[in-house]
Amino acid sequence: MFNQLTRRKEIPVTHSTLRIRQARHSDAAALERLAALDSSRMPHGDVLLAEVGDELWAALSLDDGHAVADPLRPSADAVLLLGQRGRQLRRRARRGAHARLRFA
Length: 104
Description:
Layout: H1 2-6, E1 18-22, H2 28-37, E2 47-52, E3 55-61, E4 67-69, H3 76-103
Antiparallel strand pairs: 1-2, 2-3, 3-4
């Protein structure tokens, strides 16, 4: 009886891969739904998405860093990965701009 009371509630593990990609115009409705679930505004500008299977779990604006995530999913790590990928893209863009200026 004691073991039944002390068990932790476990989050089901998904075997789907997390995929990060740029948002397209066709993602607008899904982004609106995600922002509504998160009780937040929709990310604007260049936006990265985190999808697991066919489901949108999180989104991050590369312009202002505003993120939204599905509160019904374990999406915190997805937001962290989006932030990391966004930093990588910004560094790459800065290096590319500096390289063009040097060799122009």
